[in-house]
Amino acid sequence: MSLDEDRLSALALKVWQYKQGEVVSLMVHLGDRLGLYKAMDGAGPFTAEDLAARTGLKARWVLEWLRGQAAAGLIDTGDGLTFEMGPEAGKVLADDRDSIWFAAGAFGGGVAPPEVVDRLADAFSTGIGLSYDDLGPSAAHSVERMLEPWTRLALVPVVLAALGDVVGRLSDGAAVADVGCGSGVAVTTMAQAFPLSRFDGYDPSHHAIARARARADQLGLTNVSFSPVPASELPGDGRYDLVVTLDCLHDMPDPVGAARAIRASIDDEGVWLIKEIRSSARWADQIRNPVLALLYGTSVSCCMSSALSEPGGAGLGTLGLPPEETGGLCRRAGFTRFTTHDFDDPGNLYYEVRP
User: Fold this and answer.
1) The pLDDT value given to residue 74
2) Which of 92, 148, 208, 331 could form a disulfide with 140 if both were Cys (CB 3.0 to 4.6 A apart)?
3) What values do phi and psi take at 48, rounded to 5?
4) Where are the domains of the chain?
5) Any bridge partners for residue 178, and if so which?
6) Do the Cβ atoms of 286 and 280 come closer than 8 Å?
């Protein structure tokens, strides 16, 4: 059966926009619950710092939330730094006393479990987010379901095949680490494709590692291992020929420290493959993304939250590693060669990094 590529793309976008609505509904609930809408109503132009001072909340959390609200078309901004709530938005989102149009009260937190919603609301005040384990076992399952098709179908034949001699080295037998391996989909996919190589998965989420071990056992793989530890506990002896971090570096409380640990663990002829969300440092570029509100909402509820789950966390957020930032981070960690790959993945870019 032939496929209409334009129709396929449009349908996929429509489905992701339904997911976007799910996430935005949680953000609307938080805005109502935390008094953010009331504090914005009639205030004129303001920054995240202004709104944080007015509400007693943490500016970093407020900024990510504001950008998501602007991406959803609920408030206005021209640069992602200064915001304003229009009078109509005030009637719909803030005025629960005199407006028959008030709607924010209809949102109860979306599909997030009540205990997670409560802790997210608290995080706006404390500044300390939730780790992926704090989100519960269902989070590991959801991430696995979201990323598994791409990993199984594209990682080996498309991405690894583009990295020079990597496939040849893996075929002959190499040492590989997946840092932030989640439920082990990438590890098991590579382990099946390259039985002579050895694969180690690292992730601080005990829920995810339990799923990864069960997956490997089910597949009967003997060339894999999984450890519930962060990147800082990687072996520093240069043993790995390939290290991968797939859509997770921005989630880490200390991404620079993680990059340095990866540099110490990788051979001088090795390769670090990074997969990161497509993003830009310029708001004018960001706002063109039709699912930008989904990304900012996911950042508040998952990615930035994880990156702020430890005191002093970097809090980069889902969109915090555009190409120039990723390259700078790699150079600070001691890498010297940085190549960007675009595989027509609408959501992600890939970076081939070498010492």
Assistant:
1) 98
2) 208
3) -60, -35
4) 19-123, 134-279+321-354
5) 201, 244
6) yes
Q: Are 185 and 215 in contact (CB under 8 A)?
A: yes
User: 14: phi > 0 → left, psi -120 to 50 → alpha, else beta; which?
Assistant: alpha
Let me know the angle formed at the C-alpha of 153 by 148 and 158, rounded to the nearest 5 degrees: 125
CA pair distance 141, 102, nearest whole angstrom: 36
- Closest Cα to residue 248, out of 136, 153, 114, 151? 151
Q: Are 30 and 61 in contact (CB under 8 A)?
A: no
Amino acid at residue number 181: C
Token pair of 58, please?
Answer: 């943490």
Q: Is 280 exposed, middle or buried (0-12, 13-18, 19+ CB in 10 A)?
A: middle
Q: Which residues are CB-contacts of 82 (< 8 A; sequence separation ≥ 6)?
A: 45, 46, 47
Tokens in use for 287? 């706002």
The segments of the chain whose pLDDT lies below 70 read none
Strands in 76-77's sheet, in edge-to-edge order, are 46-47, 82-84, 76-77
Burial class (CB in 10 A: 0-12, 13-18, 19+), 258: buried
Strands 198-202 and 224-227: parallel
* Fold of the 134-279+321-354 domain: Rossmann fold (3.40.50)
Q: What is the pLDDT of residue 349?
A: 97
Per DSSP, the residues of 178-193 read EET-TTSHHHHHHHHH
User: Quick one: how far is CA 10 from the chain centroid?
Assistant: 23
Q: 19-123, which class in CATH?
A: mainly alpha
Reported in sequence order, the residue ranges of the chain that DSSP labels E, i.e. its strands, are 46-47, 76-77, 82-84, 175-179, 198-202, 224-227, 240-246, 266-277, 337-341, 348-354
Lookup: tokens for 275: 């997969």
Three-state DSSP string of 292-347: HHHHHHHHHHHHHHHHCCCCCCCCCCCCCCCHHHHHHHHHHCCCCEEEEECCCCCC
User: What is the structure's pLDDT at 292?
Assistant: 98
The answer to whether the CB of 87 falls within 8 A of the CB of 95 is no
